[in-house]
Every structure is written in structure tokens, then in C-alpha cells.
Amino acid sequence: MNADDASRITQIALMAAMADGQISAEEQRELASVANRLGVPAATTAIDQPVAARQGIGILAASLSDAEARRTAYEVALAVCTVDGAPNPPEQAFLSALHGALGLAPAATHEFEDQLRAMSAAPLGGSLPAAGAVTDDASLDQRILQQAMLTGALELLPDRLANLAILPLQLRLVYEVGQRYGQQLDANQVKDLAGTFGLGAAAQMVEGLVRKVLGGVASNILGGLLGGATGLAAGTAVTFAATYALGHAAKQYYAQGRKLSADDLRALFTRFQGEAQGLLPQVSGQIQSLAKQVRLPDVFSQIRSGAF
After folding, report:
1. Ramachandran angles phi, psi of 77, nearest 5°
2. Does 239 share its domain with 293?
3. Whole-model pTM above 0.85?
4. Please, which residues have CB within 8 angstroms of residue 128's CB and are 6 or more apart in sequence?
5. What is the DSSP letter of 66?
6. pLDDT, tens digit (0-9, with 9 covering 90-100), for 94-119
């Protein structure tokens, strides 16, 4: 795997978004998240649509350096096509052509596809506290920390499918925070808030590629966080900090009646990432213990049922 894989996978993701002739708002948000994770500058403007259109799938697929990059390219493309609902016929045709061009075995991605479909349809409702005023601020802070540790622990699991559970848990945390402040939210509002911070399903998919290709340093996601990760995988540090910052930024946002601007939210997210960096050494042992206890099938089952 080499550094050029990052831009090639970004181009394949763009082609996936363009497969049905238009890029939805949800797909654009996902593309920006992927570009941020891969360190592509000016994520919302630097992706060149005409260049991507001129590149054939076969050319881009053949230029990827190894099996890891090829599988990641397909997973990212599938996540982009799924972000605004089940892939439509043109998207399905593109994904089928991409799968073949990448030389993937017919059954190689079935489990991934099944789990992504299930996670995309996972409910945000379920056994949440009743909507209303927050009565115990400390318990909400503890809940945010608990979920940050759980998502960090998932990064330590050897199964690459574990990454699929991270975003649904983060989205559910945002939903729960909003509910505790009496906010009535739908799935798109929750995803929009997460997207403000560059968090998305496809972006989570490429996290491992970022660390391998870019040496663990990527724009505004990884920078500065790895110093507190002694004894933990880099992905754990990043995901712990992202979930912690997401929860606390959501808390400020909903507490103030959703009146903060996107810039203010991103500033809060950055500040809470720094706070998480200082906290990580204190909870690293708990994260490692969680990783030994958690069972991925149980996590998937609870997400699908809305029990988390």
C-alpha cells in the first residue's frame, strides 16, 4: 500500500456518488468525510469531478497497490452509495462493475455488505430516557465517557467489521443527548451534526488506511491525538476522542437550543478532542478491558434493536 492509494480511493468514492448521475447532500457530506480522513486538502472543493469521470473504473482499480487497498476501495464506495438509502439500480451496476474490476472474490464482501445494510437501517429510537429537561448532568457526562470507551474498544478488535458498529453508536449517542434536552430529532438531523465534524460511515471505513498510508497523521482528525495513546492502537485514540468530543459538542449544541453555528461547533469539537487526549491515559486500562469483554455479534444485535 502506498500514499497514492488515498487519492485513488477518494476518486473511486466520487465515482460511486456520481453513479446515478447526481450527488446527494448526504453523499457530498460522506465524500467530504472520506477526504478529511485521507488527508485530501479542501475536502469539499478539491475533488475534481471531471477528472474522476474521465478515469475508468478499471484504470483506478488496477492502480491500487495491494489487496487491502482494493477491498477498502470497494467498502468505501459501498458506504457512499448506501448513505442516502439502499443503492439504486445505477449504483448497484457501478458497484458490481467495481467489484469485478477490483478482482474481488464473489463472496469476499457478502458479510460486510449484510452488516452495512443492517447498520444503516438500525433504529435511533428504543430504550432511551424519556424526552425532557436534563436532571443529572454528571450522569450524561458519564454516559458520553462510557460510549467513547466502548467505541475505542471496538478499534482493538481484530475483526474489521467492528468498524461498522462505531458510527451507529456515535449517532445514537447524539440522539440520546438531544432527547435528554427535550429535542425531537430525526435520523438526518443526527447525521448532519456528525457530518459537521467529518464523521461518516465511509470515513470510518478508511481510518485504518489513513494510519497505514499516512503514518498515523491525517488532517484535523488524527493530529495531536496519538501522544496520549500509550499502549493502545492509534485508531482507539482517534475514535475515543471523536466520540467523546461528539457527545460533549452535542451536549453544548442542544443545551443552547441548537443555535450554535457550524464553525462554533467545530471549535467545540476540537476543544473536546484535546480534553479527550488528556483523559485517555486515565481510561486506557478500562478500554483494554472492554475490548476483552465485548462480543461483536452482541453489539450488532443491540444496535439493530435500538437497545444501546
Report:
1. -60, -45
2. yes
3. no
4. 175, 176, 179
5. S
6. 999 999 999 998 888 999 899 988 88
